[in-house]
Amino acid sequence: MTVQRGALRFTDIQLGGRSLPIESQRDPIRILPSRDGTLEIGFEGVFKPPSRSRSEEQLPRPSVPAVPAVPAIPAIIDDRNIVLLGTWYPRIDQPCQYQLMVVLPDGFEAVSEAERIDKKVIEGNAAFTFHFPYPLREISLVASKRYKVSRGRAGSVDILTYFFAEDEQLASNYIEQTKKYLKLYEGLIGPFPYKRFSIVENPFPTGYSMPTFTLLGQNVVRLPFITETSLGHEIVHQWFGGVVEVDPERGNWAEGLATYLADYLYQEEKGAGATYRKALLTEYQSYVNKENEYPLSHFRGRTDSLSKAIGYDKGAMVFHMLRKSMGDESFYRALRYFLTSERHKMVGWQEIRKAFEKESGKSLTSYFTQWVREKGLPEISLEDVDVRQRENKWEVQCAIVQKGKPYILDVPVTLYWKGGRTTSWFHLDEEREKVTMRAEGPPDRISVDEEYNVARKLSREEFAPVISRVLGSDKLLIVIPAQGAGIYKEVADAFNQKGARRIEADALTDADLRENSLVMLGTESAVVTRLYGKLKDDAGFSITVKENPRNPARVIAIVQADSQEEVDKAHRRIIHYGRYSHVAFRQGKNTARRLDETRNGISKEFSVQQGLDQATLKTVNGLFDTVAGKKIIYVGEVHDRFSHHLVQLEIIKGLVRRGRRVAIGMEMFQRSAQRAVDDYMAGRISERQFLKESQYFKRWGFDYNLYRPILDFARTEKIPVLALNLQQEIVSKVSQGGLESLSADEKKMIPSQLDFSDPAYKERLRKIYREHEASKDRPFEFFFQAQILWDETMAESVDMFLKRNPEYQVVVLAGNGHVSYGSGIPTRAARRNGYDYVIILNESEIEKGIADYVLSPQPASYQAMPRLMVTLAPPPERLSIQHFPEESISQKAGMKVGDVLTALNDTPISSIEDLRLELSMHKKGEKVRVKVLRKQFLGREREIEFELIL
Fold first, then answer.
1. Is 438 exposed, middle or buried (0-12, 13-18, 19+ CB in 10 A)?
2. Closest alpha carbon to 720 in 641, 607, 805
3. Which of 497, 562, 574, 808 is the most buried (most CB within 10 A)?
4. What is the C-alpha separation between 567 and 633, in angstroms, rounded?
5. Residues with Cβ < 8 Å from 385, sequence gap 6 or more?
6. How far apart are CA 647 and CA 624, in angstroms?
């Protein structure tokens, strides 16, 4: 028999009444068993409060040894609290049935592993006896004079909370949530294994699970989200890690399984399973690299972010892939069998494998070998994509390629076409696998694993710039500003202590930028403005992470703070927000957080030329020999006709294929949006941010999906996009009151050159004016001035760009009326620079001089933005529903006239622009949740939530 002593001092050892010698330096102690008599050990120990409690709010080290140690276990005895875990008594190296009796001063409440606790008062002291009928490898003891005990019951299980008096008000919520979790898991994996479950608070920042109770730190208990996340995780451990124990020498399988059955499962129930799986892979890739990775079978317990990424995140994905391959019913049946067959045993991954093999009837040796015993994740790419048309069908062929040693994988591939999609699973076991799929229309896109059902490395386009990538970077520089560095001292010191290198901003070289991730202190640095322009400052303390323009595999974090006080109160908390791209705090409280959107899946978008009829496509291709040499190419449009935008895109693509340096000028964006356009094209902001910051839905009335293919191509190819138009408010003011109605500051914003001398153009505009209903409310002269101002501004915008970038040619996309006859933009730009140009119109009457080329593309369909099918009150009124069209999906869902829209999928909606922005992030056929306010009796309003299919 082996007895662990730890820091204890043994005072006496007797076996069967016979004293044994104590060798003071020997640990563990080995004692030969005896058939008769009892082993008695006298011991003593001192457990002092630590000088500084272990905190989980420390920045992680960039790397650790290949096999981490088990986390340090707290121990304390003082006049108010007792926390004894690990070796606080002589620990036997094998399972034993324990009976623990503890005598404490009156007023203490105590908890240990027990299905029944007897409490008696003996000579003014409280005596606790703990009864647990099953063998344990170790026991713990937690007690406090501050506890207030609350009770509840779920079926045959007693639920108790041991909370400090100041947190007693939290008990009822914890008990109710525990009931909910017990019901959930008893339905999935079987009856709760014990008669009692307690939630126990303690002063350490812990999150532990022991048989019959969980031990949570005070700072943890108070977090509002714990009952929705971590509590369920610890309850799962009562089955996995409690009734079936982990053999740490053979790998800790329980954390990955608990993460999957708790943290992940809750997100899946909310419809966010794919998002959570992507976050798991993002965390893994942020902290794990070739130098520090180790197999899942070597994971013992969480010590830092690296070990969490392997044990929790990769472990959860291993179980997810098992579930996908077996199906829900078989997956949970295997877990129930595992719990029965291995009850009260200490097991490793081998027993997990056997349970799933028994249920599936298949050998899973290769699966567990590559995912558990071997390190790393597969790296997949999509290559040699080819599209062929066969009669009325379209065939897509491609190769899925694995870099390095190939894994055995089942990978989902989704093919999209206008109005449809299909998903197929392909088995991969070689470095290169050919894939063939068929579409019922011209294909738009093919995507591999876009819902993240495979544990794999993320491509650059999928890998969001998040805080974890900074914290996990193996090459990190802290850039110290020339001024104002003092308030960031704590941040710099924290990163410096974990391996980051300091460098003065003035000393930063281009090589430093290329080779490292950076932490930039302050937003005023010349480096920041050189890379990203002027950034918006948040009040308080914030950190914003962006892709490093010099090396996309690296990131740059910009840290901003108002004061030293703001830094002190917030900077240690950033580790808890690792999955976000931006977080902000005010007085230590989180005020904002954002994850930049990235591509989902390894995808390839097809040329949209298939959306054009062949005659038009042939004509467009035939134009290039003539038009490719023109400095400015004007391509007119009717705004709501998708085929016109396909022509524009095909022209742009043709120029790019010919090696031209192209910029795209767009009427649809006003000059004030140029920063947002530039940031989006450079990948610095997400599409959502771009649409919001450019105010697209406020300043342009047409479906964004009409223009999305053009902007997506420009972003992919790094093509500059010019916001040509003047601020809408100025144009509207001139339209109502003429140029003289503008203020002195407004006049500074308009072009200095305005040409009103084209009579033919004026007459064409007068005809348009008469056709407008609104013409009676404003004089023609004001309408004419506004139109000229509009055209001259766009012409000036084109000219200003070409003066700064003479090596470019510009493709201008504008309404047919702005380019016909050259009267709108073309001649006004030529007046400024003399550059040659060409005009191409779509679906226009053919008249002498109207254009150089007129195309007649056949109508092309596109996936229009979804609608709620409601008529809403105009601004500035609230978004109250005034009318439903026939077959309205909102009316069918239960909404009524007078309801006020307030949120879409929990995103607040306060304007029509907000609503259109949120709808643009969805596709038809998707399920969304809409919240409304409905008037009740006496004018009160009640919030109601509806689900509907767009």
1. middle
2. 805
3. 574
4. 52
5. 396, 397, 398, 446, 604, 606
6. 13
pLDDT, one tens digit per residue, over 99-133 is 999 999 999 999 999 999 999 999 889 999 999 99
| Alpha-carbon distance values, 289 to 18, 293, 306, 563 (Å) | 57, 6, 10, 36
Average pLDDT over residues 314-334: 97
d(CA 310, CA 298): 9
Tokens found for residue 448: 């591999």
640-644's contacts with Cβ under 8 Å and 24+ in sequence apart are 640/702, 640/703, 640/706, 641/842, 641/843, 641/859, 642/611, 642/706, 642/859, 642/860, 642/861, 642/862, 643/611, 643/612, 643/616, 643/842, 643/857, 643/858, 643/859, 643/860, 644/842, 644/843, 644/857
Residues across the chain: 950
**Rounded Cα–Cα distance for residues 140 and 292 (Å):** 33
Residue that the structure tokens 């110290």 belong to: 480
Amino acid at 809: Q
Q: Which helix (H) or strand (E) holds 943?
A: strand 941-949
Does pLDDT of 57 surpass 50? no
Q: Burial, 65: exposed, middle or buried (Cβ in 10 Å; 0-12, 13-18, 19+)?
A: exposed
Helix locations, 26-91, DSSP H:
none
Category of 550 on φ-ψ map: left (φ > 0), alpha (ψ -120 to 50) or beta? alpha
Long-range own/partner contacts, residues 363-366 (CB < 8 A, 24 or more apart): 366/408
- Asked if residue 549 lies in contact with residue 531, where contact means CB atoms within 8 angstroms, the answer is yes
State phi, psi for 495 to the nearest 5 degrees: -70, -40
- From CA 89, how far away is CA 629, in angstroms rounded? 87
Q: What is the pLDDT of residues 439-489, one digit of tens each?
A: 988 888 899 999 999 999 999 889 999 999 999 999 999 999 888 888 999
In Å, how far are 282, 442, 550, 863 from 287, measured between CA atoms?
9, 41, 21, 39
Is the pLDDT at 653 greater than 60? The verdict is yes
Residue 720 and residue 711: Cα distance in Å, rounded?
Answer: 10
Q: Are 463 and 546 in contact (CB under 8 A)?
A: no
Distance in angstroms (rounded) separating the CA atoms of residues 624 and 636 = 17
Which amino acid would we find at residue 876? P
The mean per-residue pLDDT over the stretch 693-701 comes to 91
What single-letter amino acid sits at 658?
R
Spell out the residues 6+ positions from residue 765 whose beta carbon is closer than 8 angstroms to its own. Answer: 783, 784, 787
In DSSP terms, which residues pair with 903 in a beta bridge? 908, 931
**469/7: higher pLDDT:** 469
The rounded distance, in Å, linking the Cα atoms of 545 and 562 is 18
36 near 17, Cβ under 8 Å?
A: no
Q: Cβ contacts of residue 774 below 8 Å, gap of 6+?
A: none
Dihedral angle sign, alpha carbons of residues 496, 501, 506, 510: negative
Q: Which residues sit opposite 129 in a β-bridge? A: 101, 118
Beta bridge partners of 664: 721, 811
Report the predicted TM-score, pTM, of the whole model to 2 decimal places. 0.69
Give which of 196, 214, 202, 119 is closest to 164, Cα–Cα: 202
Long-range contacts formed by 732-735: CB under 8 A, 24+ apart: 732/786, 734/782, 734/785, 734/786, 734/789, 735/778, 735/782, 735/783, 735/785, 735/786
CA–CA separation, 492 and 485 (whole Å): 9
The dihedral of CA 813, 818, 820, 824: what is its sign? negative
Q: 524 pLDDT band (50/70/90 cuts)?
A: confident
